[in-house]
Records
---
Amino acid sequence: MPQFQCYHGTNRANAETIREKQEFQPSLGDEQWLGDGIYFFEDYKEALLWGKKVKKYSDTTIVEVAHQY
């Protein structure tokens, strides 16, 4: 089955929760970029910029995921 790497920009506490629970919690609410959901990027640098510049996390952390389709 084909797969690709994708990246999720978040903060350190959220990244630790994702790794411990092995699940993501969707962002909810009208202020979300593209609506409710979980946001991934194909490019590591874009995920990093998302965490630092858009979400303004001082401790931006990237979670790497191998997604199969």
Note: The chain has one domain: 3-68.
---
Amino acid sequence: MGDFAPPCGLRPVFESEKVVIAALNGELTVKRLVRRNGRVLLVPENPDYPEIDITEHEYVHIWGVVTYVIHKL
């Protein structure tokens, strides 16, 4: 089992470059939410994965901002 990252739905979502839990086409992802050059992007921490431009994407729901992560020892 991986890490547990509960979202905090009470914080403002679009703070600068916060890590969010987003539902994109029915699948969950944890990425950094970034505004760049008039676009809205989901940016992975791992550079091997592409950024996702969600500016005009119809099926995106931001669940909340990740405020902490619990690691299993």
Note: The radius of gyration is 12 Å.
